Amino acid sequence: MLLILLCLFIAVVVIQFLYYVVFFGKFSFAKPQTSTPKRIPISVIVCAKNEEENVKTFLPLLLEQNYPDFEIVLIDDASSDETLEIFEVFEKQHSNIKLVKVENNEAFWGNKKFALTLGIKAAKNEYLLFTDADCYPKSNDWIKEMSAQFTMKKSIVLGYGAYEKISNSFLNKIIRFETLLTATQYFSWTKLGKPYMGVGRNMAYKREEFFKVRGFMDHMKIRSGDDDLFINQAANSENTTVCYTPESFTYSKPKTNFKDWFTQKRRHVATAKHYKASDRTQLALFYATQLLFILLPIILLAFQFQWIIVLSLIAFRYLFAWISLGFAAGKLKEKDVMYWFPIIEIIIIFTQLNVFITNTFSKPVQWK
Fold first, then answer.
1. Which of the residues 75, 268, 320, 358 has an alpha carbon 20 to 30 A from that of 26?
2. What distance in Å separates the CA atoms of residue 303 and residue 244, rounded to the nearest whole number?
3. Can you give the pTM of this predicted structure?
4. Phi, psi of 79, deg, nearest 5
5. Domains of the chain
6. How many alpha carbons lie under 13 Å from residue 53 in its C-beta half-sphere?
């Protein structure tokens, strides 16, 4: 039995090597990205529900973008605070702002996808750039960098939605590491010609791609997934590319307690079960081998079975994973989280397991 477990452990390390070096290496070891600015008209779409403090702070940053032709479509999704009133003030002050007011609809109550659909239809431009109300661009060249990746063939652009750094917060490092790992995965698979998700904090696509798949209709009843489920359905090797220049990043305020972050993770994992079967399989295999990489050595070392081989495999796996993610972290400006890599990885692995078990017995809360 111990020999079988050792063989299984070797197989796990080989699979992890394929993921981290062969697959993730497509992004991790890629050359720094360059871009050729374009002048295509862009509609920036922001959907907000009860975000009065965030829109006060972040809307001015969107208006300061260094881009010749863009409008901002503000969608108020039946907010109960002062969000709508703040939007109305901005609309009066800026000619390139268009306001879409969404009232509660019995058929689509509380559904962000319904609100986004109205905003997409109201936009005057064909090229759409999305971010969330609690996000802000890192630079005034955000629109320029994201729009530069559009070509005659590439009509979907996946960007990086980062989280702010909080000093002396270990939870913040966990959140940013998990975000780094997720981005490394979807950037890499996109480069491999198999895009499977993106984040609504920073993504762009041509409106025709939205209507090709009937918008969100096929998953309208699933409250979340306006970003990743749409990309999972609409993106392919021909029409999708990535943007990871530092000037293209957006930032959001991260959760500050474990309970809120855990709730957020529950929503994300619940949405992923609706991905295509091939995407679910590759994600499940990755996370299963991560868990087995932790559990199998514990058993083998407890019996001191071939401990030199086991320790060598552990060291080898940590070495190639650290190098691969380290290069990715350099591209995404998240190097500081890599100092805690082994510890954070173990926490995330068991958090994912806890999320899976919890979601099995109860449904997560969705859009506000």
1. 268
2. 46
3. 0.93
4. -65, 150
5. 2-27+277-361 (no CATH), 36-265 (3.90.550.10)
6. 1
